[in-house]
């Protein structure tokens, strides 16, 4: 029987233990099956049967996991369980057997009697350890997971989940479990560090188990190449979001450097290879200093040191600071409307394109142009942008504007992709910036269109696609406000709407009875039209004032001040700080560019590495979205409704001008259109204008009311414009030894509301 017990503990099936391992269910049946065993002996054999059964289960699980699991870490842990812990248990079984055979007094008593209790006591301490190991193997086994939704395959345990589970088990109160968990944690973290070293040292995804690594490649829709992104779900808990971002940046940089080295000359390539070998040795030493159990601070220091070393020795050639600043300036000038002539020219060309499309439209009552428009083609959008570039190039007499040339190469007007065409990216920064700017992407044309920028390598290391999308939303938001301002201002340039045109009759015709009668008729007609349009002009004037002040506040104060604050941090200029524009009222249509475009030309005393600049840039964007109120859904909805009401009222007023010109031709010159009743159309159009005026007045009240609510909310929280509504940290730790970036903090909405209150009082006094 002792041989049977020892063989079963070694992992072999045992007929003896099959009859007793369920004896706690039916004691009588076990007694009948084994009448020679007493009750205490059967209880001892039950304990042995449990240990033997756990041993068999562990052996089966570890073989399956080590042979087929997709995770390298899980396979390494399963192999360690079998090769270390099960092997250690097997050695202990052999040691007990050796004691029995050699009649060791520790196992053999008087008269060569081997007590069964002493044999069981040798192995009962393994039961708790085997149960815990079985739970770990069950956790790693895919058959115990739920099916993925919409997939035929079962999800398997990831390396991050296993590492987190093992590290949690280190807090147990059992010394043997803690010791086992510590050993397996060391194995798991060592395997994970080997995967990490492939990416951090060489810029390549691990060949074994790449789908379980925290960095994944997102294939492009065309199938040519792809983009790397971090998957937060595959990061162990000791990897912070900042460390994960640095890991992604290091690997992407090495991948870009490898691609960039193919375009270098042979001599430069050999020098670069020698530098890479030296850096490889240094970086591998830094990574080897990370010991298990890994702490977040320890890993962060190693990754930061590698990132800084890579930035100072290699990335300065790949991503020089002047080039980074040039691309940032490009975003500021063309997306944030720092170059005002670009926005004005683009709006004029887009409206001209819309006018050409509407030449053959019906003469019946018109709805607002954006309500139902014809979908423009890509070629038409490219033609509008090409004409805009031509006009801007004509303004540059010297032809030395490098930013304009770069913008022509990188900027595009495109139709937004359909939701089903958008790739699902697991990037951790894809949801950092929640904006409602997409509400305004259909204002410029009759259908949604977006201004985008292509990201050439290696600048995609610095800017992500999601950040360019944020700039696109901000651009659509600002373009909508600028267009509303220009269209309202152009109403005052329509001479027939505001005064007699052409001029009244003069002598000698005005001295004749017919001439005097004609003058009286025309004066009465002009007086009647002026009275009918008086409220409309008052409402349009108030709308122009409101839109102009909001545009000036957004562009002249928030964007310009925050941009200059960000640029000062990048360049670390030793010169005196530039003056702020908080107390100045800037023209939103013609913004002076001298201070902004010349700012990045200062020499840097302590240049930051690209990854630190990228992190600070994301903080800058988050603050800008909050300051521009793009994160407030109610305000953006009210503002979008206001822009729609402005377009609708202008469309009706323009239609009224055409109708009144036709009526004047009919009354003065006798030009009659028998197919159209212009008097009826005039009455209907005036009715629609009055309705549109009331809608516009309500829209203005809604916008101002929401501004007051936001001001009250922010005063209640004690927050200014430098604080995001999402509560994100507004300081970026500069781990390169420079000054840390602190987001711009400006004044509150009270400045804008004071101007609006002053303007409303002035309008009431004039009325």
UniProtKB/TrEMBL annotation:
Q: Which residues form the Gamma tubulin complex component C-terminal domain?
A: 326-758
Q: Does the keyword field hold Cytoplasm? A: yes
Q: Where is this region: Disordered?
A: 498-530
- Keyword list, A-Z: Cytoplasm, Cytoskeleton, Microtubule
Question: In this record, what's one Pfam family?
Answer: GCP_C_terminal
Any single GO molecular-function term of the entry would be: gamma-tubulin binding
Just give the chief location class. cytoplasm
Gene Ontology annotations of biological process type: cytoplasmic microtubule organization; meiotic cell cycle; microtubule nucleation; mitotic cell cycle; spindle assembly
**What GO cellular component term, any one, is given?**
mitotic spindle pole body
The family this protein is said to belong to: Belongs to the TUBGCP family.
Protein name per Swiss-Prot or TrEMBL:
Spindle pole body component
